[in-house]
Amino acid sequence: MSFLQPFLLWGLPLALLPVIIHLIHLHRRKTVPWAATIFLLAAQQMNRGYSRLRRFLILAFRVLALAALFAMVARPLAGGLLGLTGGAPDTVLVLLDRSASMEQQNLASGTSKREAGLTKLVGALKEAYRGRSRLVLIDSATREALPVERPEALADLPATWATDTTGDMPGLLQSALDHITTNQTGRTDVWVLSDLQQADWDASGGRWESLRSGFSALPGVRFHLLSYPTPATGNLAITVDRVERRSTVDKAELLLDLEVTRPGINATGDGEETELPIRFVVNGTTSVHKATLRDNRLNLRGHAIPIDRETERGWGRVELPADTHPGDNTFHFVFDKQPVLRSTILSDDPFSMAPIKAALSAPADPSRNYQADILPTDRLSELAWDATALIIWNAPLPAPDSLESRQLLDHVAAGRSLLFLPPDITGDGSFLGVSWGDWIETGASESDRISWWRSDSGPMANTRSGKALPVGEIEISRRRTLVSDGANSLPLARIESDGAAVLLAALPDSAASASAGDVLFLATPPGTGGSTLARDGVVLYAFLQRLLDQGAGSLGTALQREAALGSLGVDATKWTAPESPGEDPTELVSTDLRPLRAGILQTDGQLLALNRPTEEDQTRYLDTSTLGELFSGLDHRVIEDTVEDETSLASEIWRTFLLLMAVALVLEALLSMPPKKDTRTVEEAARGFKGGKA
Amino acid sequence: MSEGSRDFLDPSVLSRLMALPLHARQSMIGSVSGMHRSPVRGSSLEFAEYRKYVPGDDLRRLDWRAWGRSDRYYIKEFEADTNLRMVFLMDVSGSMNFAHDGKEENGTRLDYARKLAGSLAYLAAHQGDAVGLWAAGASGKKGSPSAAVNLPARRGSVHLGTLLDSLGQIEAAGETTLLQSLHEAAEQISQRALIVIFSDLFADAAELRSAVQHLRFRKHDVVVFHLLDQQELDFDFDRPARFVDLEGAEPILADPEDVGNAYRKAVTEWIREIDNIVRTSGIDYHRIKLQENYAEVLARFLLSRTPKKGGKE
Fold first, then answer.
1. Rounded Cα–Cα distance for residues A170 and A307 (Å)
2. Rounded to an integer, what distance in angstroms lies between the CA atom of residue B94 and that of residue A20?
3. DSSP output for A77-141
4. Which of A111, A276, A289, B248 has its CA 20 to 30 A from that of B224?
5. Which residue of chain A comes nearest to B254, CA vs CA?
6. Does the CB of B81 have a partner CB in chain A at under 8 Å?
């Protein structure tokens, strides 16, 4: 609890006045000569316990009333909710989850979780800290620390506006940790405003351990977790899985595969049907299709929208009627002629690379063309960089500042994939801080296995049906150690025997990292003499096709990306909204927000559809116990709120103390009330023989 | 009250009460003729009974009229009138110093007892009865002025003067020895007497019953003036106080609001026990509040002992 006039609390010892007065009275009692002491003693024996308790309670209530009075004039703030104690901290750090799911709103007021949380947070910061602490904002979309002059300014800052991004909460906390460590912020209150969506918090991720140890090493850091874990009711979400332009001799049409779901509710199977109008906008032309939502799910496959035969490329979106989460009611798409899914294997050992070439040539999508080539290392200059979705580098790593290295970095920055396989030749090069170490050979009889791999995302993630890939069955007899400086790499799979990474993701540290492609290091050769990856085939095929698919996202002139800070590359200003009749140009967002908001953008003949990450549609939230585990050992307090709750987080609660004082005084008065004198009985008894004769 | 003073006697009250004779409730064995019934037959005018003539009877007492009517010889007997011995047994324990609101100018319980005893002594002596004084309470206490007060019942104005002087001199102090004194009085007063007790009776009820029964067993006519103050019954204090025991026990800190009802309950039970003793022991019991006019109390007492018209004295 905090007080606006804390110096008045010095008067609290005066609450002991009743006790002092009582003690004085005890020594200044009137002396009465008394004869009938035998009855007085008997009465005292009868009433000893009650009398003491009553006296104690009366004193306690008097002290309580005075203490409440002093607390009241000191203007207390709602402490039970905020847990604010003592004076204001040196720094208040606001960590704002700006993920798309924070835009779920209260239909009546139109207030989103983010807005409701910000409003309450501003009120709480104003009341609780009253400008005595330095205020810094870090949001999940940009992860940049932004000093804020006044709490009232928070809601006006673009860094608190809505986005369609995902919220990497461990990353956000890491940013906070870095900021506190770097700037020596002193005693710090960290306010985290989030909806606790599981996908954002990644509770099973490996970063929490280091975060906990990092924060626990900092003295005076307290967490206030203002959470909104209530899912939006009656919400529908739409996603487009496939957009394909098909033309025949007499007509052209756009085929769409889309899915409408009610997040958080599984298909019930009760046959309940709901008529649902779906609005399609293609190149500015609108059409509405009425579909039937059955069992809370709708799959529309191959829905055809006629277009001009001359229209080969364009953009569009599908829309659902407004509901409690506007962010997932729209999905943007672009279309163009589909590019060839080209992959290039740079190796001087075509024989061992043959299984990889075969896996990359086999079409996972029969409607598309696949092409895989093996290129010797001395013919690197012939590589078609702009047309290649995946490069498999089975050669010594390039020197950090070499031409090859820069070309590879550009390739990754463009959003394409890059996989390094261990070369037999030892070199001095490295890429993104990762280099090859020594070979480890265990022999076929004592082969290693993979004990852990990341199954929630990445190239070894579980299938859509939730089944895990048989990664644990792969036998590895020969592998090469990976040497990493640790800062920019993330293990995706580990060996059972020594815990070494067998698959490592190197993370580009540029601003465009969100749009960058995957850079992976596979420590074992897939073919004979290395591992059973090629022999078993399933894991290798899924692994390579996912990498290829990931890299193909940036091929061609129609790009589909998730909204994120680097989704527009290094220069976001070159991206503009396409002109379209009927569209309101005022809806165009500022340059800073452009990569963070869903929509259609274009530049240099390229079309780009930005959408929210689909995991933002999930309605699984962290429960309190899991949250407690994530912050175990740290001074934290969870404040669970709802969008509908409009009460302030930090309000003056002097009324509570006034009520407390009144209750104490009433109880004191009741206890002090003299008991009804029962003199009638004794009078009647005394009258019985008055002047009588036995 | 000053030492030896007879201020407790009010001539106007005495003159008014002189019209009311003091009667014993039972026959008394006196040494001289008086106005009280005697267990032996005598020569008073009061007819007692007839009995058959036996040789040797005085022929003057033969009822000739009865012989004339029934041809049988009957002797006519008359009651004998005698005087009584009246012993005042004063409780002189410290509790007799109690005064209303603790102010002695209001008069203590002992002062009130003095007025009652002095007036009764005067009236009794005036009608020829013997009066005596027994100070019960500190009889064994050395140095106490009342320790030696033990005046046997005698007649005569000189003795009355001595008794009144002693009455004026006794002082209350120390713990009560009332019960012990009652037993001693029962043993030491050999002839039946009218024993008048003045006390607050703050003692164990069971032992009190035993002491009273002892007196009754010795055929004494027992009168108890139970002297209480209204404050002792009501306990109507309005603030906590330090209650100092008049008999020397430890002071008690008490809040009347806390203990008031329990006190009154204890007093009620005690009064009921006293009443029960009165019912079973046949004593003449008078519960007197110190706020009452003592002249009215005495008049009421004397009237209560006056034989009913037509009744047998």
1. 45
2. 36
3. B-HHHH---SS--SEEEEEE--BGGGG-EETTTTEEHHHHHHHHHHHHHHHHHTT-SEEEEEETT
4. B248
5. A44
6. no
* Nearest residue, CB atoms, A689 vs list B254, B270, B278: B278
CA atoms within 13 A on the CB side of A232: 31
B201 touches chain A (CB under 8 A): no
Query: Residue A267 corresponds to which tokens in the numbers above?
Result: 């298909």
* Number of inter-chain CB pairs under 8 A, A vs B: 164
Does A693 fall in a domain? no
Q: Rounded to whole angstroms, what are the CA distances from A457 to A346, A464, A604, B2? A: 27, 11, 32, 114
Cα separation, A169 vs A199, whole angstroms: 9
Tell me which residue has tokens 């709602």: A78
Q: In this structure, what DSSP letter does residue B62 have?
A: B
> What single-letter amino acid sits at B301?
F
Say what the ipTM of the complex is.
0.79
Distance of residue A51 Cα from the nearest chain B Cα, in angstroms: 6
Q: B11-27+83-305, superfamily in CATH?
A: von Willebrand factor, type A domain (3.40.50.410)
Q: List chain B pLDDT tens, one digit each, 313 residues.
A: 444 578 888 899 999 888 878 777 666 665 555 666 666 566 655 666 778 888 888 888 888 888 899 888 888 776 656 667 889 999 888 899 999 887 777 789 999 999 999 999 999 888 888 889 988 665 444 444 444 578 888 888 898 999 999 988 888 888 888 888 888 888 888 788 889 999 998 888 888 999 988 988 888 889 999 999 988 888 888 888 889 888 888 888 888 888 888 888 889 989 989 988 888 888 889 999 998 999 999 999 888 887 765 444 4
Residues A151 and A93: beta-carbon distance below 8 Å: no
Which of B233, B247, B249 lies at the smallest CB-CB distance from A682?
B233
Any B CB within 8 A of A682 CB: yes
- CA dist A257 and B162 (Å) reads 135
Say which of A34, A42, A694 has its CB closest to residue B284.
A694
Pinpoint the residues of chain B covered by CATH 3.40.50.410: 11-27+83-305
Shortest distance, CA B178 to any CA of chain A (angstroms): 15
Q: Which amino acid is at A525?
A: P
Domain co-membership, A568 together with A613: yes
User: In the structure encoding, which two tokens stand for residue B91, read together?
Assistant: 């409780």
Closest residue of A to B224, CA-based?
Answer: A693
Q: What residues make up the domain containing A263?
A: 237-336+557-617
Q: What is the pTM of this model?
A: 0.53
Residue of A114, A107, A94 whose CA lies nearest to A164: A114
Q: Flag whether residue A674 sits within 8 Å of chain B, measured between CB atoms.
A: yes
Determine the distance in angstroms separating the CA of A62 from the nearest CA of chain B, rounded to an integer: 18
Per the structure, how many domains does chain A have? 4
Instruction: Answer yes or no: do A29 and B240 touch at CB < 8 A.
Output: yes
Task: Name the residue among A48, A66, A45 with its Cα closest to residue A56.
Answer: A48
